[in-house]
Amino acid sequence: MSDLDRARAALRSIFGFEDFRPGQDEILSAVLDGEDVFAVMPTGSGKSLCYQLPAVLGDGLTIVVSPLIALMANQVAQLRANGISAAALNSSLTWDETRALRDDVAAGRLKLLYIAPERLMMAETQRLLAAAGVARLAVDEAHCISQWGHDFRKEYLALGDIQEALGAPQVIALTATADVATRSDIVARLFRREPRVFVHGFDRPNIRLAIRRKDGAGTQIAAFLEEHRGESGIVYCSTRARTEEMAATLAGRGFRAIAYHAGMDMETRARNLDTFLQEDGVVVVATIAFGMGIDKPDVRFVAHADMPKSVEAYYQEIGRAGRDGLPADTLTLYGLEDVKRYRQWIDQSEASDEQKRVEHQRIGALVSLCEAPRCRRQALLAYFGDRSEPCGNCDVCQDGIVGVDGTVAAQKALSAMYRTGQRFGREHLIAILTGDATDQVTARGHDRLPTFGVGQEFSKVQWRAIFAQLYAAGIADIDMTEHGRWFITEDGREVLKGRRTVELRRDAVEAPAKGSRKTARRQATASAGAELDADGQALLDLLKAERTRLARERNVPAYVIFPDRTLIDMAGKRPGTRAEMGAVHGIGAAKLAEFGDTFLAILRGFADRAA
């Protein structure tokens, strides 16, 4: 039996999954062959299994570097529920717990050890691990190591240097959010040997995308949530005060909404997190403090009451919806005040000038996505260098937009880029187009170019919207590593030569009529379990209630017992024996032994009442 066949057998017997998800098999093959691996995979595509299965099948200890204690605790709980020896070494442990864990490591009783990068930097920890024999170093959320990553963390930088102290183990790095610059930076900083690099796309087709201009955020969010009553979801706000206000607004409208932010006392914050993880139908209104530690697979919606900080942050935050592969919904609101606030925060921060420049460019890229004149998914994937056909599952594809021929405007903008050597930023180019003889424009003689003043039919605000759409359409691009210079893409050259036309959103280049307001039509996303009949839904409710009871009893997230997808499959198949229960999606040997009889009793009782 090949290593991959052994991995497939373990996938069924331990995790209860019939086969690998797309892309997992080739990554696992490389890992099982002993190669260093860097994998970029969409959230919810099963990244963790790419180091968990090799850890189970192989010898030695697998170290997993993880940024948050909550994330470690939940992953360890899931592994243990599946019968895998795992633990986490972090500051939440007592002295006695730490000593017992060190004994387990030294005795070789663990397959996986989750650890924060700060703890891994300690010489004492490195000596313990080196003596135990580290076979693999897995770096989760690997974008944290890159200065270009949206969540850069200085403590990750040392991961490249400590590998020798650990015995030069195999390195496996994984992330869902890394553009081209970030990927190159990760490879350079982390790997001492040339890794196999896998980029398996960024698409999450089960997630519906919608982005709208802000026009009464509380009302807009409440209307969105009306389509999701009884479902679990997240609403993101930009400040702590906003989370409290929005949670109160939603609670006043009958939603079970609770706030979560870093300014809350630890007891309240932990209680609210446990409520969200253990119970159904809870809406968490949170700042980005509610971040990477959340691995709840049955989040059915994510809404942004305020604009995210970057395209990467947007992608990661909406990626917390629908990790079980079932339909999920998103809504993001944005406005000029959001842009102004973020730019002010950047300018007032203690970051270097270079990092401030990068952050400003990220804001510009996000605005471009919000103003995109084409399919949201196409625009989002293009940011990461990926391509897609129109998706049919976003507000633009479903509701349409009113467009105007913007070919001439695009050619003027592209001409300004071309005639200035494609070396300048947006504001300089707009000054040229609008005939604004700024000091920089005149110093470079750009007031004498043929394009100077040719775009005076549009205001600077309108030109910014046009540039945003050119970027979103892939007609022009921005080099974040070279002072935000704009340059012409292959598609842009076709436009400049008159071989291709460009459509722009009319609402971006025409002043709206006074008092006019457009309300976008929205189609509700199918709820998870919607394929069940009335009896099936009633049974699903009973199964969920039992799951909640068990989760509270064990003080673990509900999905550690069973995720929604497993319960839906159970309600549809209605197994009557242990063997039949073992064929349900997501039920491996350990979970069958621990929970099988409990859920079989509910299924039999339901069948008896229905008879």
TrEMBL record:
<feature type="domain" description="HRDC">
    <location>
        <begin position="533"/>
        <end position="611"/>
    </location>
</feature>
<dbReference type="Pfam" id="PF09382">
    <property type="entry name" value="RQC"/>
</dbReference>
<keyword id="KW-0227">DNA damage</keyword>
<dbReference type="InterPro" id="IPR004589">
    <property type="entry name" value="DNA_helicase_ATP-dep_RecQ"/>
</dbReference>
<dbReference type="InterPro" id="IPR044876">
    <property type="entry name" value="HRDC_dom_sf"/>
</dbReference>
<keyword id="KW-0347">Helicase</keyword>
<dbReference type="Pfam" id="PF16124">
    <property type="entry name" value="RecQ_Zn_bind"/>
</dbReference>
<dbReference type="InterPro" id="IPR006293">
    <property type="entry name" value="DNA_helicase_ATP-dep_RecQ_bac"/>
</dbReference>
<dbReference type="InterPro" id="IPR036388">
    <property type="entry name" value="WH-like_DNA-bd_sf"/>
</dbReference>
<dbReference type="InterPro" id="IPR010997">
    <property type="entry name" value="HRDC-like_sf"/>
</dbReference>
<dbReference type="Pfam" id="PF00271">
    <property type="entry name" value="Helicase_C"/>
</dbReference>
<dbReference type="GO" id="GO:0006281">
    <property type="term" value="P:DNA repair"/>
</dbReference>
<dbReference type="InterPro" id="IPR001650">
    <property type="entry name" value="Helicase_C-like"/>
</dbReference>
<dbReference type="Pfam" id="PF00570">
    <property type="entry name" value="HRDC"/>
</dbReference>
<comment type="similarity">
    <text>Belongs to the helicase family. RecQ subfamily.</text>
</comment>
<dbReference type="GO" id="GO:0006260">
    <property type="term" value="P:DNA replication"/>
</dbReference>
<dbReference type="GO" id="GO:0005737">
    <property type="term" value="C:cytoplasm"/>
</dbReference>
<dbReference type="InterPro" id="IPR001763">
    <property type="entry name" value="Rhodanese-like_dom"/>
</dbReference>
<protein>
    <recommendedName>
        <fullName>DNA helicase RecQ</fullName>
        <ecNumber>5.6.2.4</ecNumber>
    </recommendedName>
</protein>
<feature type="region of interest" description="Disordered">
    <location>
        <begin position="509"/>
        <end position="529"/>
    </location>
</feature>
<dbReference type="GO" id="GO:0005524">
    <property type="term" value="F:ATP binding"/>
</dbReference>
<feature type="domain" description="Rhodanese">
    <location>
        <begin position="220"/>
        <end position="285"/>
    </location>
</feature>
<keyword id="KW-0413">Isomerase</keyword>
<keyword id="KW-0862">Zinc</keyword>
<dbReference type="Pfam" id="PF00270">
    <property type="entry name" value="DEAD"/>
</dbReference>
<keyword id="KW-0234">DNA repair</keyword>
<dbReference type="InterPro" id="IPR018982">
    <property type="entry name" value="RQC_domain"/>
</dbReference>
<keyword id="KW-0547">Nucleotide-binding</keyword>
<dbReference type="InterPro" id="IPR002121">
    <property type="entry name" value="HRDC_dom"/>
</dbReference>
<feature type="domain" description="Helicase C-terminal">
    <location>
        <begin position="217"/>
        <end position="364"/>
    </location>
</feature>
<keyword id="KW-0067">ATP-binding</keyword>
<dbReference type="GO" id="GO:0043138">
    <property type="term" value="F:3'-5' DNA helicase activity"/>
</dbReference>
<dbReference type="GO" id="GO:0006310">
    <property type="term" value="P:DNA recombination"/>
</dbReference>
<dbReference type="GO" id="GO:0030894">
    <property type="term" value="C:replisome"/>
</dbReference>
<dbReference type="InterPro" id="IPR027417">
    <property type="entry name" value="P-loop_NTPase"/>
</dbReference>
<dbReference type="GO" id="GO:0046872">
    <property type="term" value="F:metal ion binding"/>
</dbReference>
<dbReference type="InterPro" id="IPR011545">
    <property type="entry name" value="DEAD/DEAH_box_helicase_dom"/>
</dbReference>
<keyword id="KW-0238">DNA-binding</keyword>
<dbReference type="InterPro" id="IPR032284">
    <property type="entry name" value="RecQ_Zn-bd"/>
</dbReference>
<dbReference type="GO" id="GO:0009432">
    <property type="term" value="P:SOS response"/>
</dbReference>
<dbReference type="InterPro" id="IPR014001">
    <property type="entry name" value="Helicase_ATP-bd"/>
</dbReference>
<feature type="domain" description="Helicase ATP-binding">
    <location>
        <begin position="28"/>
        <end position="196"/>
    </location>
</feature>
